[in-house]
């Protein structure tokens, strides 16, 4: 099938990194800051972020005391779990699936190996009825087991232990690029309040957005498509600080400079209530070493203060990612949809993020397709099983889905990559091998991470 692998240059549509040409290298060659940071991070960066986030999300109340500087969304997720969960008392980690797979290990690191549960999505976002049902069952179980208080950790003046964690990417999700409706966002916040859940959202793609109309002149989109869950929690039904609430809130936003400046900066922020932001800053590693990434945080503060990074997002990143998306999408429409593949939420006016999620015809197994693409076409794609919550026993399996990334590869390889994939699918359909060689997903094999070098 096709030419031998080594005659073809590698095309990597798996790796979810920004292309090196999109890094603002000139902007960040500035500013030494070699001392320890305050626990909650560089003050100037917090001030600049408060202004930018107010401008972009237009919430009523972003203030520096709601922001804590982090080492990026991954480091910050680990930190939130350390401060606000306990592996016994915290009943479950609810993960909207398919999910950003590199988050799984952070839940495992914090003792939640057996407590991760997938929550499916529908057209509006998270399946709220499923979540409500499962939360109830989880609470009934906790009651039967007498799970009434934390065993290994205690609440301290700067923290509390939540009963549930919900992890989601509600806007331009990784991997599906779905965006939740407003109604669904409000329902989730209400449910989180009812069940003492903390909703952790990775809001890392919100600024990378553009029009799906490829014929229209691309306007700069300098306002968020949707409020974050943390904004909704701030305002809905009396807000997070309403009478009788403990003041920690039920949503926290994980922001990152990885996608809008460069992942090597290892700098991001959390935003939540003042108590939440302060709690994050009091994790032991920050109490001892100060907020992470102080050097780069100080550099980022400078380029926000001049407005250069904000302009870079609008003038360079939005049009570049729009062009990449449209190039790949045109190829998908021409070479994949006629073969029976389908898209999610295809009728949107604004889209964003890094990825296109496709469902294969049901007789084509994504693991077989990804492995054959790698060995025979020198083409890397993300197979659905990667995004499946480990240990979850529900129906949330993605054996017939794939994720393609348009951010990493050279732009002139996006079309040839999709063409190779189309040819391969056609030949799998023709010779009837599409589902026969089903293998265990490499990702499921505990301890092994054989393809991690590609992402
Ligand atoms: C949903 C999501 N969260 C977090 C990250 C990683 O963010 P950071 O580089 O800030 O740790 C990524 C990067 O791919 C992502 O897609």
From TrEMBL:
InterPro entries: Aminotransferase_I/II_large, PyrdxlP-dep_Trfase, PyrdxlP-dep_Trfase_major, PyrdxlP-dep_Trfase_small
Positions of region (Disordered): 435-455
Domain of life: Eukaryota
A GO MF term: 2-aminoadipate transaminase activity
Biased composition (Basic and acidic residues): 439-455
Signal peptide start and end residues: none
Family matches, as SUPFAM superfamilies: PLP-dependent transferases
Segments forming domain Aminotransferase class I/classII large: 32-413
Keywords: Transferase
PANTHER family per the UniProt record, alphabetical: AMINOTRANSFERASE, LD15494P
Protein name: PLP-dependent transferase
Lineage of producing organism: Eukaryota, Fungi, Dikarya, Ascomycota, Pezizomycotina
């Amino acid at each position: 099938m096709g030419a031998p692998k080594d005659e073809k240059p590698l095309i990597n549509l798996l790796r979810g990194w920004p292309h090196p040409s999109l890094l603002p290298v000139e902007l960040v060659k500035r500013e030494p800051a070699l001392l320890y940071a305050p626990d909650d991070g560089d003050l100037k960066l917090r001030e600049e972020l408060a202004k930018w986030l107010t401008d972009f999300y237009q919430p009523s109340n972003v203030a520096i005391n709601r922001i804590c500087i982090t080492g990026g969304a991954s480091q910050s997720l680990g930190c939130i779990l350390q401060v606000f969960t306990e592996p016994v008392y915290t009943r479950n980690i609810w993960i909207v699936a398919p999910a950003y797979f590199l988050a799984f290990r952070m839940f495992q690191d914090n003792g939640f190996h057996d407590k991760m549960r997938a929550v499916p999505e529908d057209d509006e976002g998270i399946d709220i009825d499923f979540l409500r049902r499962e939360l109830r069952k989880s609470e009934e179980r906790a009651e039967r087991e007498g799970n009434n208080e934390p065993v290994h950790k205690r609440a301290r003046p700067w923290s509390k232990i939540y009963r549930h964690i919900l992890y989601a990417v509600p806007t331009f999700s990784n991997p599906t690029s779905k965006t939740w409706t407003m109604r669904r966002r409000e329902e989730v916040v209400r449910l989180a309040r009812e069940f003492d859940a903390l909703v952790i959202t990775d809001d890392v793609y919100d600024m990378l957005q553009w029009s799906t109309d490829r014929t229209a002149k691309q306007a700069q989109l300098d306002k968020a498509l949707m409020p974050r869950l943390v904004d909704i929690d701030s305002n809905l039904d009396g807000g997070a600080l309403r009478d009788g609430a403990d003041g920690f809130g039920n949503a926290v936003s994980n922001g990152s400079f990885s996608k809008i400046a460069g992942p090597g900066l290892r700098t991001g922020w959390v935003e939540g209530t003042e108590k939440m932001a302060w709690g994050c800053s009091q994790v032991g590693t920050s109490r001892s070493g100060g907020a992470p990434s102080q050097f780069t945080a100080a550099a980022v503060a400078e380029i926000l203060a001049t407005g250069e990074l904000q302009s870079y997002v609008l003038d360079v990143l939005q049009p570049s990612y729009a062009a990449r998306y449209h190039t790949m999408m045109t190829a998908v429409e021409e070479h994949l949809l006629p073969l029976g593949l389908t898209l999610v939420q295809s009728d949107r006016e604004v889209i964003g993020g890094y990825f296109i999620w496709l469902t294969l015809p049901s007789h084509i197994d994504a693991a077989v397709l990804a492995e054959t693409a790698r060995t025979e076409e020198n083409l890397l794609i993300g197979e659905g099983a990667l995004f499946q919550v480990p240990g979850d026993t529900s129906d949330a399996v993605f054996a017939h889905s794939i994720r393609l990334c348009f951010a990493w590869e050279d732009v002139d390889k996006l079309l040839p990559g999709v063409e190779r994939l189309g040819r391969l699918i056609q030949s799998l359909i023709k010779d009837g091998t599409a589902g026969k060689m089903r293998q265990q997903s490499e990702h499921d094999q505990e301890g092994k991470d054989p393809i991690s070098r590609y992402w």
